[in-house]
Amino acid sequence: MSDHAAHPATSVVALGRPPKTPGEALNAPITLTSTYVGSRSPEPEDRVYARFSNPSWEPLEEAIAALEGSDLAAISYASGMATVAAAFSLVPVGGVAVVPGASYNGTIGLARELQADGLFALREVDPTNLEETIATFEGADLVWLESPTNPLLDVLDLPTLITAAKSAGAFVVVDNTFSTPLRQRPLELGADLVVHSATKFIAGHSDVLLGISVAADPKVRDRLLGKRALQGSIAGPFEAWLTLRGLRTLAVRLDRAEASAGELAARLESRPEVSRVRYPGLPGDPGHQLAVAQLDGFGAMVSIELAGGAEAAERFVEALRVFTPATSLGGVESLAERRRRLPSEPKAVPESLVRLSIGIEHVEDLWADLEAALTASGGA
Ligand SMILES: *Cc1c(COP(=O)(O)O)cnc(C)c1O
Questions:
Q1: 334-368 pLDDT, tens per residue?
Q2: Half-sphere exposure of 290 (CA within 13 A, CB side)
Q3: Domain encompassing residue 294
Q4: Which of 199, 210, 213 maximizes ligand 1 atoms within 8 Å of its Cβ, making it the mutation to test the pocket?
Q5: Which of 109, 143, 154, 357 is most solvent-facing, going by the fewest CB within 10 Å?
Q6: Taking the CA of residue 231 as centre, how many other CA atoms within 13 Å lie in the half-sphere pointing to its CB?
Q7: Residue 2 has pLDDT above 50, yes or no
Q8: Pick from 212, 247, 282: which residue ends a domain?
Q9: Are residues 222 and 307 in the same domain?
C-alpha cells in the first residue's frame, strides 16, 4: 500500500478511505444492518450476517493494520477488554500465561479470574526484573507485555523480552494502548499480537469504547475472527466510524499532548508537594534509556506521587479545575485520577499516585491548574 510509506501524520488522514471516484463520498459510510440479502448458494465472500462481518469495520481495520506495519487487516472489538479477553482465549485450557502483576487492572483482573476458573495457570511477574521474568517463560503458552505500563509508566525492554519469550515457544501479546502505532510498533520486534484499547488515544475524544488487535500470522487472525463471530464481541458500526474519525487527528493530538506532557513533567519535578514524577521522557526516569531506544515519542501520560500521601492526592485531584477527575485517558481533555481509589487497582501502584492524562488544552492553563491544586493539596 502506497500510504504505508508515508509519514504517519499523512497515513492517519489517508488510510481507510474509499477509492477517489468523482461524485462519490470522501468517507466510508456507516452500514446499519443486522443481516444481508441472501441467496440459495452464497459465495464464500458474500456477507451473510452482521455478527460475522460489517463493511463499517473494514476501513478502521485496514488503517490500524497499516499503521502497525501489517498487511493483515486488524480485528475490531466492542472494547479494549473484549480484545484482551479474545487474546487470553488463545491459551489452551490447562496452559500457562505469564502476565505482569502491574498490568492494566482489567487485564490482570481477567487473568486472575481465568486462573481461578481453572482455565490456565497464571504466572505473575515484574517485567522490569528481566532475569526473573525470562525465567518464567519456560513452558509458557502466552506472554503478556504492556509498555509503557498503566499507570506506573515503566518501560519494558521489549526486544529482549519478546525474543526470550519467542525462543521459549510462547505466543507474545503486546498492549500498545499507551504508545499507539505512531510511537511503537511491536510486530516489528517480533510480537505475535498487538492489542489496543482504541477507546483511549486512537479514538481520542472520550466518546466511544472500542478495541482492536493486529495479528502477525494469518492463522491466528482467522482463529480470532472465528471466535469474534461466535462470541459476538463485535464493534458497533457507529463506534468503528467514530474511531476512524478520531484517528484522523491522532498525529496532531499526540504531538501536542506529548509536548505538553514533557513540559509539565519537568516542571512537576521542581514542586515540593511531588515526591516522584514518572514520565519516560525525563532524563532521570528509570525507563528513559529504553524509551529513547524504543519509542518515537514519550507519550502523553504522566504519573505523580504526592509527598503528603493518599489524602494529599485526593485533595489535589479535587482542587483541579481544568483537569477533570475521571478514569480513562487519551482524550482531548486532560484527566486526573488517584488510581488506588479503585479496589481493583494492583497493590504495586502507590496509594499517593495520581495518573494524569494530558490533553490538548494550552499548556500554561494546565500548568496553572496543576500548581494551584498542588498548593491546595497541602491544606487541611
Ligand atoms: C483502558 C485500557 C484497556 C481496556 O480497554 P477498554 O476499552 O476500557 O475496555 C486495556 N489496556 C490498557 C493499557 C488500557 O489503558
A1: 999 999 999 989 899 999 999 999 999 999 999 99
A2: 18
A3: 250-376
A4: 199
A5: 109
A6: 17
A7: no
A8: 247
A9: no
